[in-house]
Amino acid sequence: xLREFMKTxxxxxxxxxxxxxxxxxxxxxxLQAGSNNGRLDVYWVDVExxxxxxxxxxxxxxxxxxxxxxxxxxxxxxxxxxxxxAGLQKVDHLIVTHFxxxxxxxxxxLAKRIPIGRIYDNGIPESDPDGRPNNLxxxxxxxxxxxxxxxxxxxxxxxxxxxxxxTVGSPRLALRCLAARQKMVEPATSLQNTALCESxxxxxxxxxxxxxxxxxxxxxxxxxxxxxxxLSWNVEAQLVCPVNRVGIVDVYQVDHHGLDQSNNPVLVRSxxxxxxxxxxxxxxxxxxxxxxxxxxxxxxQATYQIHKNLRSDSENNTDSTMIAxxxxxxxxxxxELSVDQTGSSYTVRIPxxxxxxxxxxx
Length: 362
Ligand SMILES: [Zn+2]
Fold this sequence. Notes:
By secondary structure, the chain is of the alpha/beta class.
């Protein structure tokens, strides 16, 4: 009798243990499925002189900033990095910095391939944002973007935070809008940036939509990445003069593909980045003045280019191991950056050539 009872107990204990282990395994798998192993990843997709930057958070949320040009090529490349490289099935947040086709153009094609959650932009303009009257081609270009089905449409304002999930045990994650439509966020300090601002020079006023680009700052613990779209020279200065509203950053996504209408030295010096990443094309961006500025800023340890500059001014190129695509007829290689779980270091990789370099955050 006693033996029978003990046997039943042993059996039910085994059964309960098995049940417990099965539930524990399912829970662990569920938690792992929704995590990026505590890392923050950033991918620069090659959209040939447009821009498309994908951010994947530790909880596997995705933010895409800009979408390259209209047509199959750029949306294919973005989709490849999103789904095959990063393993995502949705763009949770899409930010469009301004209404030029090399930034919003790929969005409608991408939306045919992958669902898009919330779309943030400066508010769709009624007419050509560069002020060209009766520009029918702008109306044709913007229509597919306007028709994208999404969960929400939000007009970004300085100070806005993109609502991102925080991960238990990870440093604080934030993506904050610092400027939009030439309006700036309130400075966090009253400390004047006098020395740098006094020597700053202005350029002719930019009346194009580049000046309206929204600017975001991604923060993960001590790590900071600046993304300013195609922000142009005089507006760049307003971000850091007379007070530096951004602070210093780790990574500077070079404004405007590295064109000399942008990348005011006062901005780059004030941000004092360690790494610069340029989304240029074979003939577009990576211009001499910008390249000289990047070379002259002493904090910059490494400049990366998505493309080699194939114009005759070939001296304006970084080391070829830090260029993702060397040929005009390229495979659309991307650059990736991974911030560790503590936010204290980050590694930049070019998977196509095996380049890999780790930097400490500031
Ligand atoms: Zn552009």
